[in-house]
Design brief:
Blueprint: E1 17-21, H1 29-41, E2 45-48, H2 66-78, E3 82-87, H3 94-97, H4 103-108, E4 113-116, H5 121-131, E5 135-137, H6 144-148, H7 150-161, E6 168-169, E7 175-178, E8 181-190, H8 191-196, E9 210-217, H9 221-234, E10 242-249, H10 254-265, E11 272-274, E12 287-289, E13 292-296, E14 301-304
Length: 310
């Protein structure tokens, strides 16, 4: 089955109420406060989930129990006064709570904006499969890039409020790993989460007709090789139209990472653009997932057919 565009939620308006929730790891109080101040500066009204600063009693890498995180997320999404749910940070834990969500209730709450990256990849995939909803692979409220980098902040703000102004994505660093031009529907996220999601209830069987946007953090080259090989062997990359590569922070020397990416992806016969500028880098673009777009690896651009939000 070829991927088709998903339903786009509505853009934000000044004064909109947005929820900030922890789906994965515990959140720094200082960074959370700084991120909330930025949102208020955009004339948004952020409300914080009950367990955003919680910590699991025995598993310190989790922001409270799986049930707590799922409940916070569901309450935020189903609140009719909330227009968007912004994840506070990544880490690990979204996979543990995603199966606890009531998808019928989420669907009934109507299309809303979901923003996050890293571990939130598990939710991006689930929202595509279960709700048919386009989402935003973008910076999280307590992430270092969002708190510290003005460009990262402005790109997310423009995407949320004025999506027509950010139809063409790509930083000056972008260049072709494999030259070419392709059109398809965007999907993706962290390579490790996409590989871990295989054969789960929320995993799509293939990326056929898709523009796969991938990045990761803290994965050595041989581990990236293993994950990409797993995606290839499973058939997940069968029929992919093109691939956009983001940041590979703390994954080792980029020359070694690049060699793995070229070895594993170069033989697919599709355009591959590297260093587009999304993910765990110091500057991070907001990339919509589930929309039709054109990837031009030689120009170093991803051009959206429609604005990210309606």
């Amino acid at each position: 089955m070829t991927l088709t565009p998903l339903t786009r939620p509505a853009r934000l308006r000044p004064g909109a109420r947005v929820a900030v929730v922890a789906t994965s790891g515990p959140v720094s109080e200082e960074r959370l406060a700084a991120g909330l101040d930025i949102l208020r500066g955009w004339d948004l009204d952020p409300v914080v989930g009950t367990h955003v600063q919680a910590r699991h009693d025995t598993l310190g890498h989790l922001a409270g129990t799986d049930e707590d995180r799922a409940r916070d997320f569901q309450q935020a999404w189903c609140d009719p006064t909330v227009s968007a749910v912004l994840c506070a940070r990544g880490g690990y834990g979204a996979q543990r709570m995603v199966d606890l969500l009531d998808w019928d209730a989420l669907r009934s709450a109507g299309p809303k904006i979901l923003v996050g990256y890293s571990d939130v990849t598990a939710l991006h995939e689930a929202f595509a499969v279960r709700l048919g909803l386009a989402t935003l692979h973008g910076p999280m409220v307590a992430a270092a890039a969002f708190v510290k980098d003005t460009f990262t902040q402005e790109h997310l703000r423009a995407t949320l409020f004025d999506p027509e102004s950010v139809r063409t994505l790509g930083l000056p660093t972008a260049r072709p790993l494999v030259p070419g031009r392709a059109r398809g529907v965007t999907l993706g996220g962290c390579v490790c989460l996409l590989a871990a999601d295989l054969s789960t209830p929320h995993a799509r069987p293939s990326a056929r007709g898709g523009l796969l946007m991938i990045e990761d953090v803290g994965e050595e080259p041989y581990r990236l090789d293993r994950m990409l090989t797993q995606l290839l062997r499973s058939g997940r990359l069968d029929g992919v139209a093109g691939i956009g590569l983001g940041s590979w922070a703390e994954c080792g020397p980029y020359e070694e990472v690049r060699a793995v990416l070229l070895d594993r992806l170069g033989g697919l016969g599709v355009p591959v653009a590297e260093e587009l500028g999304f993910g765990h880098g110091e500057t991070s673009l907001t990339v919509p997932l589930g929309v039709s777009a054109t990837l031009d690896s030689e120009a170093g651009t991803l051009t959206l057919d429609t604005p990210a939000l309606g």
